[in-house]
What we know:
The structure holds two protein chains of two kinds. By secondary structure, chain A is mostly helical. Helix content of chain A is about 70%, strand content about 5%. In chain A, a hairpin with a 2-residue loop joins β4 and β5. Chain B has a six-stranded mixed sheet with strand order 3-2-1-6-17-18, covered by helices on one side. A five-stranded antiparallel sheet of chain B has the order 8-7-22-21-20. The radius of gyration of chain B is 27 Å and the shape is elongated.
Amino acid sequence: MSASRNRELLALVPVALLLTLGFAAVFAQNDNQLTNLSLSYGLYFLAICLATHIYIRIRLPDADPYLFPMIALLTAIGLVMLYRLDSETGNELARDQANWFVFGLILFAVVIHFLRDYSVLERYRYTIALVGIALLMAPRLPFIGAQVNGAYLGVKLGPIAFQPAELAKLCIVVFLASYLREHRELLVVGARRILGVTLPPLKHLGPLLVVWGAAMFMLIVIRDLGSSLMFFAAFLALIYVATGRLSFVFIGMAMFLAGAWVIYQTVPHVTDRVDIWLDPYQDPGGAGYQVLQSMFAMADGGLFGEGFAQSMVLIPGTDSPLLPAAQTDLIYTLITAELGLFGACGVIGIYLLVAARGFKVALMANDGFSKLLATGLTTVFAFQAFVIIGGVTRVIPLTGVTLPLVSYGGSSILANFILLALLLLVSDRARREAREGV
Amino acid sequence: MNGRIVKLFAFIGVMFAVLVGFTSYWTVFDAENLKNEQVNKRPLFTAQKVERGRIFTDGGTVIARSVRQGKGASLRYVREYPLGSLFGHPIGYSFAEQGNSEFEAFHNSELIGDNNEFSSIFDELRGRKPEGNDIVTSIDGTAQQVAIDQLAGRSGAVVAIEPSTGRIKALAADPGFDPNTIPTDLNALNQDADAPLLNRATQGQYPPGSTFKLVTAAAALDSGAITPEETINSPATIDIQGNPLANSDGSDYGDIDVTSALTFSVNTYFAQLGEEIGTGTLEEYMDRFGFNSKPQIDLPANQLSISGVFDGQTLLSGGDAIDVGRLAIGQERLLATPLQMAEVAATIANGGDLMKPRIWNEILDPDGRTIRTMDPEKQSEVISEETADQLTEAMRDVVNEGTGTAAALSGIDVAGKTGTAEVPDQERCDGLPNQAWFVGFAPADDPQIAVAATVECTDGQGGTIAAPIAAAVMQAILEG
């Protein structure tokens, strides 16, 4: 027990060191005197992580030792990049993000405290599903909804703006895990082979149709291809893991593509996004600007990058962005431009390792709900990273989801710390049961 | 379920590998193409971060320098031209948004310190930022000023070359522009009907008129078609290709030699001479003088014009139907740039060898040490020294007693040739019919400077309009 916690503690030290070095580098780049401020930032960060570590040691002694340090590492990378941006733009995004990090950890502690027995989530699954859908719809509500670049992703409540989709993704994963745990047998039995393809009974295609309908609805209502892709992919992954039927996945993908095609033809915002993805040069100064600048910045990065805080974010001599939304959408581009292909691979590597540990949690879990919950949470996290990195590298159309924990944004930080809390809860139970030989 | 979870993880691994693949494509495999994209302004902005080197006159006066703006990540350098429009041509401009032109464009890599691939990679590994090199030109600031003053607002150009080295001592064109105004006025300048961005000295194509008789005489003497003593009967009017051709003063000169023919610019003499030597020989000598291809000067090829016989935009060659009698006197759709005509004068002045014209003279590193010095290069051996001497004698007479007396300088022997061509596009010139020319060099016995001066759209003659301009510029350089 203490062995895994000690590993966690040990892993936190290089994370804090990296943050300290990163802040020190920004100071050095700006010709500022190297004050002990950067050191105190590092110590502050380490102290918060230590407090969290002690809390985990007390409440979840058996939880996976690598997840929290890796999540902290991603947060640290985000903080350093934001601090580097602030030095140029004069904003205080890094400070805001650090505050969100603290809030996120508080929420993390609260979730762990109240959801010690997370199986209660199963009992409220329909309520949770409704909350999730309500959250998704919120940006279209009058007065509080906010449109950004044609997509409805944000909600404004007075001074507080947040992206409800970030929280909705958790609700929907919890619902799907619970629903599929109960119905997975039904989906498997009674399957028939028609023309060599195994098809589930028609009446059980119902849930599939509902979720497909929800994803299409999201495409139309919130107009965000990225989010709907992320949700639907998590759903297909879960249904595959739950039933083992690849036919579901293929039917689902075909339906998604067909639906997306129709919507591409009819919803102008989606049409624009896809057209720009296919040919950004058609409007290099307007709609294609962001993705083109992303490619150009990466080209400047090369193998090793231009160096930390060296790449151009603003058009020199102006306040106009050369890398639009570098703090959110294009933060991966910024990392690639400054730390090169190797730095970018490092970041992708961290996400892959988080996914590996998340799936390890699912593998070790003993009951269906825990397995599906861990799988769903990990998948949605990994897919979110894929959707935004794929967007800025033109694998798929660019959409406005955040790079989990690295991009600037409070909702993303809060949601991902809840996600981490849930994963650690599942992990703690699974490993405790394994240790106790249940 | 565990097997399926592992498969799902493998699938996510593949998807992340796709991300790595695409990132590699943009950062490495397609990076060069992306950097060359027209809409990619990053390379220009990056260049702005380098303190671009200064450009000097031969006397060390600053023509162009970079001024620091901002600091930290927003640090950049902006070009400043203290002498304003004086050096708009041929130095051009360099700005992040508008790009580079003329000399600034041609010498961009030296000015941003991009010496060679190897050393820049080495510098990068050492974390050293590239620094721009300074360039000292061979242009004489005083002569350039005199040239602009002498043009006095008339459209035209002056080119002055040091014959033995090819060094450009003055290269002025009017109308010009103040490069400092480029960031705000580029569009307006592009649309200006007077075409101030056109460097008339290197891009202006004009009928050279009688100044071209030097090329005809050079070809005839050097090929042995005539001897200096040989005479040709030169009446007031003759028929060339079925059309009458007259001397400009209407005189019948009788039997004259090549020296007299040049001195008094006798059309009927040169038209017959042209027909005698033929298109092939004349073309060969034109090629040697630098006609029919871009001048080999250190300016961007897209800002240089070819001199030759044109049918519209098409350059004609020996195989096409050319009226060689009229070509011999500088008509017949022949167009030449002032630079080309200056090269003709410089070749004769240099004993028959054409040197490659060069604006740059010396490159200095940021610490002021000389990295490279211009090594004069021969472009071609055009005519023999003997022919050059014979032409020089004739050109002396032009200035002493012929059409070019206005180019005479007290105490200095000037050799030259005037030209007054009919402007092909009369409408553009509001009825002012002439293109006035003077080409020449001084001192005639030991040439230090060769000049071509021309003025567009004038009712005056080469001898009265262009010769005084050339004289003043030569004087400025010889006295300087």
